[in-house]
Design brief:
Layout: E1 3-6, E2 15-18, E3 30-40, H1 42-49, E4 85-86, E5 92-98, E6 110-113, E7 116-118, E8 125-127, E9 139-143, E10 147-149, H2 156-160, H3 163-175, E11 183-186, H4 192-203, E12 207-211, H5 217-222, E13 227-229, H6 235-239, E14 244-249, H7 256-261, E15 263-271, H8 284-289, E16 293-296, H9 304-313, E17 321-326, H10 330-339, E18 345-349
Parallel strand pairs: 11-12, 11-14, 12-13, 14-15, 15-16, 17-18
Antiparallel strand pairs: 1-2, 1-4, 3-5, 3-9, 3-18, 5-6, 6-10, 7-8
Helix pairs in contact: 3-4
């Protein structure tokens, strides 16, 4: 089958497109999926360049084309990353074979892959496209319970834009318990997770303030943001120190302290990314005197992905696809992704 193998940390030369890779075998509780489309995510690039290593303190765009000097093999799970690896946390396709313990009636189902595989305990997890092979291939094998049937008129490319970005956004909103009528601040609102978060927060009835570049503001407003402010906005000058009930942050970096300052007392801050830099300044007095809650969000809550599929099927959220590339053009797709001129998702078509 065709597949893109990540052969090590570094530049684009570490992405090896092959057409002679063996179709994966499936265990008794697995399903084999013929992949139709797979989304491109920050995590693909972050893993390639070694950004998850604790030895790295730079923003994600540093060394994105060539890799980061000094990066080690400690991945986001803390364990050494294993090469080669087929990446791709997003996948839409159809089940073509099932393991002995799986109902054969599932063959033919159109499915989305839930990208975080849970084990016996909450944090006994494997990440699709990281600890196990992912969707950048003609075929992928996943546990049956994480292949969710989806009934939708959307195209495969459109459906492949949902799993990682929308799953991440819905998980943060679930963890911070965002309620109707609350004011939420969303950073990085023109990216995949940001676009998803704006829609999903609006779906909950929240009032959304989004941070995005001026050139992308109109599109972000069309997704449900009540207001859009620049990425480098002086938040305290605009909103004072007691404005937002909650914040959803995927950017990190220098705005971290300002975000905490504009939260109300008892406010909630949920984070699942740090594209502007993972090392931030925290004034502990702000944290404890305002009774803030800082919530890290990676492992999906059990109801997040089934809920997401139901929103898709009822047409309550819409895909935002910026561009589509063939699997063989993965380098071009990542180059376009890193230019940050797009709004929404870049998807590989298989």
């Amino acid at each position: 089958m065709r597949a893109v193998l990540l052969t090590g940390h570094g530049g684009y030369d570490k992405l090896d497109f092959r057409d002679d890779v063996l179709v994966p075998s499936s265990g008794p509780n697995d399903v084999l999926i013929r992949v139709a489309a797979a989304g491109v995510n920050n995590t693909d690039i972050n893993t390639r360049i070694g950004w998850y290593s604790k030895a790295v303190a730079e923003a994600t765009d540093v060394g994105a084309a060539s890799g980061i000097a000094g990066a080690q093999d400690d991945g986001w799970s803390g364990a050494a990353f294993q090469f080669p690896r087929i990446q791709g946390a997003d996948a839409c396709g159809r089940i073509v074979a099932v393991g002995d313990n799986v109902n054969p009636a599932r063959i033919g189902e159109r499915v989305l892959v839930e990208p975080v595989f849970r084990g016996a305990s909450t944090f006994d997890i494997l990440y699709f496209g990281s600890e196990v092979d992912g969707g950048f291939a003609d075929y992928t094998s996943v546990p049956s319970m994480h292949a969710h049937q989806v009934n939708s008129e959307l195209s495969d490319v459109e459906l492949a834009s949902f799993p990682c970005a929308y799953g991440t956004a819905e998980n943060i909103l679930t963890r911070i318990d965002l309620q109707a009528g609350e004011h939420v601040l969303i950073t990085g609102a023109s990216g995949g997770v940001g676009c998803a978060a704006v829609q999903l927060a609006k779906r909950r009835g929240a009032e959304v303030t989004a941070m995005a570049a001026d050139a992308k503001a109109e599109i972000v407003r069309s997704l449900g943001a009540s207001r859009v402010v620049p990425r480098d906005a002086d938040l305290e000058a605009l909103f004072g120190q007691e404005y937002f009930d909650a914040a959803l942050d995927i950017v990190g970096g220098s705005q971290f302290g300002a975000i905490l300052n504009v939260l109300k007392r008892g406010g909630r801050y949920g984070v699942s990314g740090a594209i502007s830099g993972p090392i931030v300044d925290l004034d502990l007095r702000t944290l404890y005197l305002k009774d803030l809650r800082l919530i890290g969000c990676t492992v999906l809550e059990p109801d997040v992905f089934p809920n997401l599929v139901s929103y898709i099927e009822r047409g309550e959220i819409q895909p935002v696809v910026a561009a589509t590339y063939d699997l063989s053009d993965i380098v071009k797709a990542q180059e376009a992704f890193l230019m940050k001129q797009h709004v929404g998702k870049i998807v590989l078509s298989l």
